[in-house]
TrEMBL record:
InterPro entries per record: Methyltransf_11, SAM-dependent_MTases_sf, UbiG_MeTrfase
Highest taxon, organism lineage: Eukaryota
Protein's recorded name: Ubiquinone biosynthesis O-methyltransferase, mitochondrial
Species: Mytilus edulis
Predominant subcellular localization, coarse grouping: mitochondrion
Length: 319
């Protein structure tokens, strides 16, 4: 391991940019190795760029927040609890994703008999929006932390949960990015539903989420596959023809194939257990499980307590 010598200027920069330390150390170390006398001038240029705005407001190599996505969802924040508005398909998706999360924790023989099957489970909802996943999980007994990049989303979620005293004490919302959370190995599960396709750095996002999961804990994801079918139906069809979601909601270039998502999960100590295709019928506003994963799919993985073989295959099954 190479030790780095930091000049006084670099020390000041590092002490004032907690979330940028790694990048600034790399810059400083490279400068010092090449020309120790150039350290102060070079680092000053970099520090002025990194310190100009906060992490939540400025896209850079050390945040998963995409600024365009941030602006997009800020405009939609007031619609989260309008079940006939822009997010009505996401409300309908709860009929699939909430039982998927519940059943991962509860044996089939017990799930109907338990009133609070997720009692004592700590769950992190990443990209929590208005709280449409966090609230039903709390009703099943879970203690939920929701984190979202959009401050207005957090305000909407907090206002809505305050109207339900039975679960308001079991849900907490945070404004920020998942990579800024310090609680490594804290959560029994992390949920990132319809989020991966909106982040700026998928690998960093997955790594940040996995670090927060306890050994033996779960990571639940739903997202879109990168296929011609997903472009035709999820982008052209859903956004421009049927107007299920507003035009511009999705960027097809950011969709991710399940095998790529699996690889990223395995590289972070996770074993993928289940993969389900998901099909949406806009006529009856209903989602169903299918074997085909060409468009929407759900996946969950378990954090291993031992080494993972990189060539394990995904178990695909109808739900």
């Amino acid at each position: 391991m190479t030790s780095l010598r930091l000049c006084h200027k670099c020390f000041i920069v590092l002490s004032n940019t907690r979330t940028k330390q790694y990048q600034l150390i790399k810059i400083c170390g490279k400068v010092l190795q090449n020309n120790p006398r150039s350290c102060q001038n070079s680092i000053a240029t970099q520090s002025s760029r990194f310190n100009s705005t906060s992490t939540a407001d400025s896209p850079n190599a050390h945040t998963t927040i995409d600024q365009d996505e941030h602006h997009k969802f800020t405009k939609l924040a007031s619609h989260w609890w309008d079940e006939k508005g822009e997010f009505y398909a996401l409300h309908s998706m709860n009929r699939l994703r909430i039982p998927l999360i519940r059943d991962a924790f509860v044996d089939a023989s017990d799930k109907e008999s338990k009133i609070f099957p997720l009692k004592d489970k700590l769950i992190l909802d990443v990209g929590s929006g208005g709280g449409i996943i966090a609230e039903p999980l709390a009703r099943l007994g879970a203690t939920v932390t929701g984190i979202d990049m959009v401050e207005e989303n957090v305000r909407i979620a907090q206002t809505h949960i305050s109207q339900d005293p039975e679960i308001s004490g079991h849900v907490n919302y945070i404004h920020g990015a998942v990579e800024d959370l310090p609680e490594e190995g804290k959560f029994d599960a992390v949920v990132a539903s319809e989020v991966v396709e909106h982040v700026s750095d998928v690998d960093m996002f997955i790594s940040s989420c996995c670090k927060l999961i306890k050994p033996g804990g779960y990571f639940f994801l739903t997202t879109l596959n990168k296929t011609y079918a997903s472009y035709l139906l999820a982008v052209l069809g859903a956004e421009h023809l049927l107007r299920i979601v507003p035009p511009g909601t999705h960027d097809w270039n950011k969709f991710i194939p399940p095998e790529d998502l699996q690889l990223s999960l395995e590289q972070n100590g996770m074993t993928v257990r289940l993969l389900h295709g998901m099909c949406y019928n806009p006529v009856i506003n209903r989602w169903s499980w299918i074997s085909n994963t060409d468009i929407n799919y759900a996946m969950y993985a378990v954090k291993s307590t031992q080494s993972i073989h990189s060539h394990d295959t995904i178990e695909q099954t109808d739900y």
